[in-house]
Each structure stands twice: as C-alpha cells, then as structure tokens.
Amino acid sequence: MYRTAFASLAKSRRFWIWEICGIIIYAIPVTIRLATGSVVLPVLSFVETPWISMYIPGNIVEKILVNAFFPGAAGAVAGEVFFSRVYSETLKGREMYLARLSGALIQTSAFTVFQLWGNVQNIAGSWGGNLFEYPTVYPINFLIASLSIFTPTLVSFLRNKLADGYRGLRSQRKPADAPPKLSTEEQ
After folding, report:
1. CA torsion 37→38→44→48, rounded to 10°?
2. pLDDT tens-digit readout, 103-134
3. Which of 2, 52, 137, 148 has the most CB atoms within 10 Å of its CB?
4. What span, in angstroms and rounded, lies between the C-alpha atoms of 8 and 28?
5. Bridge-partner residues for 130, per DSSP?
6. DSSP structure string for 32-72
7. Has residue 121 been placed in a domain?
8. Which of 146, 155, 59 is nearest to 108 (CA)?
C-alpha cells in the first residue's frame, strides 16, 4: 500500500511542480546573496527588520515569503498526494489539512537536517558568513511550515480568480473590436 503510494507520488505532476517551483523560489534569494555579496536583499531592504533575537532573524519577511513555498507548501502537497493515494480517495477538510501538515513537517525536518549538516560544514558565503542557516532559527522554520499548509489553497484560489478575470475580459470583447473576416475572394 505505501509502496504504491510512494510510486504514484513520484509520478504525480502536481508534486513535481510544487517541488521544483518551491526550490526555485528558495534559490532566488540565495543566488542574489551570492551574486551581490550582501545578506540584505535589494528588493526587501525596505522591509528589513532589526535582529530581534537569536531566534528571529533580521530577514524574517523574506523567510516567511520563501519558506511558505519551500519546504513548507511543497511538503504539504507531497503529504496530500501521498495520503490521498494511501486511502485511494481525494482528501477533504480536516483529513486534507492533517495530511498536508504531516507532509510539511516531514519535509521541513529533512530540510532542517540538510541545513544543520551544511552549518556544521561552515561553508562561507560571499558575504563572509555561513551559507546555511543557524540552528537557532529552526523553530521558526517549523512554525512557518505548519502555517504553510494553507499556501496551496491560497494559490489555487488566486489562480482561479485570475482565470475567471481573464475569461471575463475575453468575453467582454466586442465583435466590432475583432478583425474583419476576409471573404474567400480576398484571401
């Protein structure tokens, strides 16, 4: 039962879209930091918060925006797809959010182990500090992951609203705005 669920998870298009897009979203700030040699991102510098404590970093706005997609929401989608295959039904309501929570926490745990391994290696970034996160911010990663179970629902809602708006704009287009059809003689 679990073997087939893992196999169908690996074949799931939705799973791979969320994983790959989440990794890309996570990699954008890292790439900018490596290219500029500064911890402060140029775009988010206007919302930079002071370093409150060792548990809340100065880039908390960026952390919330990025971690809402990876590893949190990507893991949530993985958990939802996996458990829907285990139970052979589409999950709804409480079961769906519990499956998402377990997936988000499992993927965040795996990513945290990777972050800890990298931090222990003490790989320096171009700004001079450690390239990986410090262990004191791991609890906030789990908090963001537990809240990111709602990210797939929010993204789906926004996608549907944008699609409805686009269809509405297309249907409001008047026939007079359309190019005239050519007769067979003019073609």
Report:
1. 170
2. 999 999 999 999 999 999 998 888 788 889 88
3. 148
4. 29
5. 124
6. HHHHH--SS-TTTGGGPPP---SSS-TTHHHHHHHHTTTTH
7. no
8. 146
